[in-house]
Write a structure and sequence with these properties.
Blueprint: E1 2-12, H1 15-46, H2 52-65, H3 75-97, E2 115-118, E3 125-127, E4 137-141, E5 145-150, E6 158-167, E7 170-181, E8 191-196, E9 200-204, E10 209-211, H4 215-218, H5 220-232, H6 238-272, E11 275-279, H7 283-286, H8 301-314, H9 316-330, E12 333-337, E13 362-364, E14 371-373, H10 374-395
Parallel strand pairs: 8-11, 11-12
Antiparallel strand pairs: 1-5, 1-7, 2-6, 3-4, 4-5, 6-7, 8-9, 9-10, 13-14
Length: 396
Amino acid sequence: MAVRRSFKFLLRPTRRQEIALMACLDDHRQLYNGALEHRRTAYHKAGVSVRYGDQSGELKYIRAGDEGGQGRWSFSSQQATLRRLDRAFAAFFARVKAGRAPGFPRFRGRGRFDTVTWPKDGDGCRWDSQPERASATFVRLQGIGHVRVHRHRTVKGRVKTVSVKREGVRWFVIVSCEDVPAEPLPATGAVTGVDVGIASLVTTSQGEHVANPRHLAASADHLAAAQRAVARAMRGSRRRGKVVARVGALHAKARRQRLDGVHKAALALVRAYDVIVHEDLRITNMTRSAAGTLDAPGRNVAAKSSLNRSILDAGWGMFLTILSHKAESAGRKLIAVDPANTSRTCARCGHCAQANRVSQAVFACTACGHTAHADVNAAANILRAGLALREAAEAA
């Protein structure tokens, strides 16, 4: 079995290449904003909906009229930027159709556009562009040159797309590969249910707990000091740029620590269990603001904001995404179940009541008297629901 995987590596550009990367990113941002303005103006002035095909057809004239700017870069990468805008509009219309808050596509400032994609290896870019140099790896990017890559692991499969991303003061290359061979693990015969939480990131139905490190909370004091320095600095000053970079570096460190932790937690589960059952969580809905509107203000806004921050700091979505990728590659079975009432139902007798959940950590059934750790009880319910789904699917 083959799967699709992405590999992310640190770039080590020279000063000249870094300037060229910044120019490439800025020109693609201007192309995105110009295409957005084109769509807005055409609809407001003439009632005409402009599509991706229309804007892609005009791209050659834009490049011809700006040879020293837009004409420097790969045609395919600029098409990918226009497709990115098209996907933003498609998502906007999908939200409108679903009756959700629309969120019209916005213009991108310098700090809100950080990725350029080349959709085909060999078309404006070339991964491992100097194979004769066995001691180092390079990626060639049109208009930028051969940029050195800190390749810390082997790239497997066939390279499909290449993306360059700016994160603070660092640059990364992301290589998306197809036909990556799966790496199935030997069967263990074990199954488990998994409950994700804030006190413990992961709790299994066997009673195992994986601690939640709370990386963002751990750096809260340093982050607050850096943000106060940003507030005191004059806009446009050199000092403000430095302290803004400091804030970004602290967030980036917390993000890297969180990613490392969820990788390790997911890998441990995949190695230990053949079948893993988890809740099908809608994290975007769970972390939606409770502020409400001026006419209908929300309640307990501060408490909900704190809960949202804790959920996002734990990285539930990141964990479940990585778990699915690792399970697919290892040949494990992953089952998602409806999370409704899993924390209120007794795993022994099936009685469901809000009063069963005595506290965050304690479960005590009001019907049969069964007591357990609340997260372990929920994980047992999740496992039972997942096994029932599997049996129903096998019987169908």
